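Section 5.1 Outputs to date
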Amino acid sequence: MNTNIFRNYETLLFVFHTSMLLQLMTWVVEIESTSSSKTEFVLTNKNYDKDVLSGGDLKIDFVARASGSTAPAGTETIEGQGPPSTGKQQPNQPTDNSTVPPVSTNKSTVSTVSTNNATVPPVLINNSTVPPVSTNISTVPSSHFVKLTPPPEVGGAKMKYDYGNAMGLSILFYDAQRSGKLPSNNPIPWRGDSAMGDNGDGHDLTGGWYDAGDHVKFNLPMATSAHVLGWGLEKFKDAYEHAGKLDDMYDCLRTPLDYFMKCWIPSQQTYWVQVGDGGADHAFWGRAEDMHMGRPAYKIHPGAPGSDAAGNTVSALAIGAVVFQDKDAGYSAKLLEAAKSLYEFAKANPGIYSNSVPQAKAFYKSSGYTDEMCEAAAELYKATKDQKYLTDAKSFYDPAVALGYFWDKKQPGCQLLLWELTQEAKYKANIEDFIASYAPGGSVPMTPCGLTYRNKWGSNRYAANAAFIAVIAVADGIGGDKFLNYAMSQINYILGDNNLHLSYEIGFGNNYPKRPHHRGAACKPGWCAASWQDSPNILYGGLVGGPGQNDDYQDNRDDYVKNEVACDYNAGFQTACAGLYHFAINNQLPPSPPAKC
């Protein structure tokens, strides 16, 4: 059941008339109380909803589950907002985004509008006119999208954009990338179980994340993403708590971490690093649920080493052990045990994984492994305090200013972790030099409107990753407002401070890409949207590749350079948003830098 309502509410009452519910699922509101008959539910807004200002809108989704063949039906009442409206759940039906005319919220002209069997009471918001009300009744993903004018206040500093919202939407993107058996609380209704036969020599390899707009599982970038996300959770846990997304974030991380523990088989000294053939996969344009091609799996072992892929995974497992220590100590211990044994395997068998697995070269060709091993050793030292890991991390350290932080280049992460762990001045200087190279006047060029432009492939990724390094550095005592201003300039560009006034994160605001290069979003059972048509499924939270060097961008599904999404595109972006939100709620965020366009 779905409804669109507006910010000026405190309590929403749902009363179901047809049957007792087995379950009522919500994502952006809290279930405050339930009647003994399980027919009445009182819902209240979560903490982060208070950041949504008048003039914006908040989309709230509900999934009601009951026994029998009759769909649940009932009424909703928004506290203080007029008579109840009615609705009926229609499972497995296409979403109908019918739009009614704008509702005038002047007190003298309020009237009730209805469409598609739902009646939505108008809401008074400071006597202003709100956008058209879209009323659709279906099981669609939870989301809320906000126009922020003026900046929101979160009990601390003002933000030009709602970083908490952007962070939360990004988690939904990772939910949409899940492979294998989906959990019962899956919030993406257009996704189902897929690739249930994934295996390597008969060993179960189901699970994990699909890489991008395709359905290959590449462990090198997947582990990079999991590590960056885990690092952000470690540093900015309060941001996730304040946004009401902490449990969602733990669930998000479990998906790749569980998968990595499947892929690593210590008794066989084998680590599976890829499932799916890139060529065959890219030749298929359809849903993951409809894949019919073979999905070969590829491994590394002592005779075919890959310290880079293994080291990346160690970093993810080790930071997972750290962040789950207080949440689930048993799970944390399993992660740490896997991290330690995989590290010994990687150290004893040095080598580049894409030399051992040539099927990866056309997609994620690695240039080395010492940077990944440095991060791995540093994260293990953080998790264990065993001096041997710190000694190893220092031995793998490279003082050079890196081209960037991404799946193949981890020097900035290594340098920043060593600063965290030792407070030695040379590591601090490394990070200052790296951010200086990306900031205005540095060696990395900028687009006319202010995006640091390292490479055409995932231009947003490089800028967001520099922002993520910057906010972690500030949390570690480096850079202060200077680094925060740089991070804000990049994230603000991505969220709308650009020449197109476009959010490159799907679902954030009202102007965002509608045709990303993503098979699942583009296809419904039996058909796929044409290249010029909007995707039938909204890929909430996905960060598209980004603009060209002159801020040029078109929302073109065929453009996999600028308009594809990927797990590693979102990771640094989400952690940067978490960091900025952390500093905002702690009243430590300086004023936003002015937009260049």
